[in-house]
Here is the input.
Amino acid sequence: MELRTLGRETLTMQVTAESTFRDQLMDRRRRLESAVAGKTPSGDVARLLVEVDAALARMDGGTYGLCEVCHDPVEIDRLIADPLVRFCIDHLSPREQRALEDDLALAARIQRSSCPKPTCASMDGKSRTCTIRREW
Ligand SMILES: [Zn+2]
Here is the structure.
């Protein structure tokens, strides 16, 4: 009983998310088309249009949100961040892999510069500053 309920909710959530992604993709497509204003698209715009069309074709074919390598579902938060992602976290393209590493490096830098400890126990809650850092 519990499992069946969970299954239905998961399915409903996926269908809702997919129609949201479709709206986003259609909207992106419209904006790209108005940006090229009837001219032949080139460079980044042309590439993006191809990717948006490919994503819409995957929706029609029922493979949207699945990794093109292992056919496992792509993490939903990554689809929300970029509805054009085609690979799960294990099969990122080299470019996406680099972008992800940059993100993680940046996050690590931010964490290091804000406080010497990963989870700072001395945030005083009012000024949101680290008291350890001030004592140094
Ligand atoms: Zn994969």
Observations:
- Confidence is low (pLDDT under 50) at residues 123-131.
- The two ends are 58 Å apart (CA to CA).
- Residues 67, 69-70, 72, 87-88, 90-91 surround zinc ion (CB under 6 Å).
- The chain has two domains: 1-91, 93-136.
